[in-house]
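Protocol step 4 of 5: obtain the predicted structure for the target chain.
Materials: sequence only (see below). No template structures provided, no constraints applied. The aim of this step is simply to have a reference model before the mutagenesis design in step 5. Sequence pasted as it appears in the construct record:
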Amino acid sequence: MKPGRDISVLINIMAALRTPVTGCPWDLEQDFSTIAPYTVEEAYEVAEAISRNDLDDLREELGDLLLQVVYHSRMAEEQGAFSFPDVVEAITKKMIRRHPHVFGDDTARSSGMAKGMWDRIKAEEKAERKERRAALGMADTEPGYLDAVPSAFPALMEAEKIQRRAARVGFDWDSFAPVIAKIREELDELEAELKDHTAPAVTGNVPDAIKDEMGDVLFALANLARHLDVEPEDALKRTNAKFRRRFAAIEAEATRRGVALEDMTLDEMEAVWQAAKGK
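Step 4 output (structure tokens):
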């Protein structure tokens, strides 16, 4: 088999990898749940390449992400559920339906996206989903309001999105001031819980109560970020990058002195850190 520019080559490669006896033992052992973490990882690596504006890496990472789609599609095909062409058909149908002002007739294109059109399209899709699942003998329970936010999202992103969704129906403060007060309240509750426990991070035996209070603090911080129109994931990424730069200065100083990082005292590290802050 030779590399190629046609998607069919990748589909055939995956089929060969998953073929019993002659396929790859590792690939044959995998299922949806074991591959899912790789799918998420590859999506993050795509985002990382974009953040670095590295188009060569982006080409590679997009290929890795595409492989994940083909992988899941192949496993579904083996179970008789659907195949890769079905995935393509589903998304192309959705994109055409959701853009009548682009793909519709002359009247639709000239009028643009009419008010209420999006809600009607979503209602049609919901009805079709219900009908399709019924035909497959699958339950189609009415989802809760917050179920629209996938719980598989990273926790910080999930927190911000469920808060934003709750705010749509009025479950929200009208300014950031009470959110800051809530953060202080949550910090007080965390501190009170910590007084009853000795060095939980050192012992490794962290009580659920501390985990719960720590989660409340993080949730409240995500809420403040939303009120300030700051994307919490982006804000934390900026701080992570800043920490990396400043710690790299400590590492460089250790190298200059010819000592290992662990042999530097905290005071020495702090001095370099503070100097790096001014640059």
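Step 4 remarks: The longest helix spans residues 232-257. DSSP finds 14 helices and no strands in the chain.
Proceed to step 5.
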